[in-house]
Design a protein that fits this description.
Strand order of the largest sheet of chain A: 3-2-1-4-5-6
Mean pLDDT of chain A: 96
CATH superfamily of the largest domain in chain A: NAD(P)-binding Rossmann-like Domain
Number of strands of chain A: 9
Number of helices of chain A: 11
CATH class of the largest domain in chain A: Alpha Beta
Oligomer: homodimer
CATH architecture of the largest domain in chain A: 3-Layer(aba) Sandwich
Structural class of chain A: alpha/beta
Number of domains of chain A: 2
Helix content of chain A: 40-55%
Largest sheet of chain A: 6 strands, parallel
Strand content of chain A: 5-15%
Largest interface: A-B, 104 and 105 residues
Chain lengths: ~300, ~300
């Protein structure tokens, strides 16, 4: 890899910049960032790489372009770089849903340009380059998206790239990807937003000061419900079919829980509560979370 | 305070034992624990206090009795100690819902014996005395329950006790308590159990290995969904009326979110996502959670 161009230098973009430099993956790093606020932060942080004034400038000179913007910006950026990407360049992105963005890419990206999508399973409730971290992607899964026309050598390039970054990789179709993450990520975020919203409504209606008693569980959800709203709007809209199915399954199960509770069905509820407990140990065994109680936070 | 009797020495009971000794709150500590497994652990941990063989033995000799068992055990224990509690003794408990347990207490506790309920907002997904901690209740809210006949001097005794333990106290009616915690604690737990259950069902149906990709959000919920099943069954059953209302509000709001997503209602969804974000900062300001991103876990 010679030159890498990061478009969008927020939490994940800036983490990539840090990691690419630390691991000496690129000769040159170019950075494009839209907001003045973030540009000032990047300069102050002395992040490695050269900030370019237009996406054109970065695109011309790069071998790998990584879209790290919200997915709703892909179209505009594609239209701006279409004429300037070299034929040997590979484009990827780190968006969290894949079917819809794949349609945008097919529709607007010039046919001779190559794009193979990635999705590193990493992030946090905070945004901005100041929160980026060198080890953001270490030991995390990165999903590489294989479509009908995806070339093997492009998958190989991305596979090498993400492994150098420190991630574990796995190849998936956009359809499988969007189904899995509707359940492991998109629904959890929606449910967290919805729980916090319900608590806010309840607080207002009852005129109780209840957020101060949030340490009993609500506080956990408030973290996820503080995630970037533009990014999450895009994900919810782009993966709406799978998310709708996930919501329906969730509501069906919640109504079954309600029935158990109202009929005090001891056997049925205990079976459920014992079953779900097993997932935590599985997650810890799979090293998807730390093993300390309470996330080790106290 | 002279002698304190802890009935049920699991996560919270053992934390109280540790804290009572460290802060020299009692002359003697008596411990009753039902399971042999926990008794062996208590001995191995060399927890302070004397393990008694019957609740009667501890009750006779104590000035303060603290029920730290699941709420479904209150009735049986009350019937065993009714004839042995001294008239000067005060009983409290640390149960998470109050209206139903108050009915049990009124029905079965002898009239001359005093019981004023407490609810320290503390806990974790792990159970057992080996996970107890001296600082479990430090700077945490402890709700003291005031009913019609609650005597002021009993509230004073409990207030002093919990403040010595390190908690902040607030007085509430059982009705207000059960409403607030249906939203800040009981619904969040139910929603977490339900999300994990839905993911398990989805995994089975789709034959996808999805738990390994849980770092995108699901892992947070799996922690809460690993909480003690007996304790949570009791809470769900005891506070079923408030929890049912909370479930209904939650489902109403989730359907509104679904509608926004399906109609791609940008304005409506962004308003919601921005609103809920504010709760996180409020929670951190109120010191109900740590201020590090991602609970500081990485």
């Amino acid at each position: 890899m010679k030159n890498i161009f990061i478009i969008g230098c927020g939490l994940l973009g800036s983490s990539l910049v840090r990691s690419i430099q630390k691991k000496k993956i690129a000769k040159k790093i170019f950075i494009y960032e839209k907001t003045k606020k973030n540009i000032l932060k990047i300069k102050k942080l002395k992040l490695p790489g050269r900030i370019v004034k237009s996406v054109k400038e970065g695109a011309i000179n790069s071998d790998l372009i990584i879209f790290c913007t919200p997915m709703s910006e892909y179209k505009n950026i594609i239209l701006k770089i279409n004429n300037f990407v070299s034929p040997n360049c590979l484009i990827t992105d780190i968006g969290s849903s894949k079917i819809e963005s794949s349609k945008i890419i097919r529709k607007f990206l010039k046919k001779k340009i190559s794009w193979v999508s990635s999705h590193p399973i990493a992030g946090s409730e905070v945004s901005g380059p100041e929160h980026g971290k060198i080890n953001m992607f270490n030991d995390r899964w990165c999903i590489l998206i294989k479509e009908k026309n995806t070339k093997k050598n492009h998958l190989n390039i991305l596979n090498k790239f993400w492994k150098k970054i420190g991630s574990k990789t796995v190849v998936m179709s956009p359809e499988k990807h969007d189904k899995i993450f509707s359940m492991t990520s998109h629904l959890p975020h929606l449910v967290a937003y919805n729980l916090v919203k319900s608590a806010q409504e309840f607080e207002k209606k009852q005129n109780y000061n209840l957020i101060k008693y949030s340490a009993g569980g609500l506080r956990d959800f408030s973290r996820i419900a503080a995630s970037n709203e533009i990014m999450w709007r895009d994900i919810f809209f782009d993966n709406k079919n799978n998310i709708t199915k996930a919501i329906n399954l969730f509501i069906k199960n919640l109504n079954a829980f309600k029935k158990d509770i109202n009929s005090k069905n001891n056997k049925s509820i205990l079976k459920k509560l014992v079953q779900t407990k097993k997932v935590r140990s599985k997650i810890i065994k799979l090293k998807q979370d730390i093993d300390k109680p309470d996330f080790g936070r106290n």
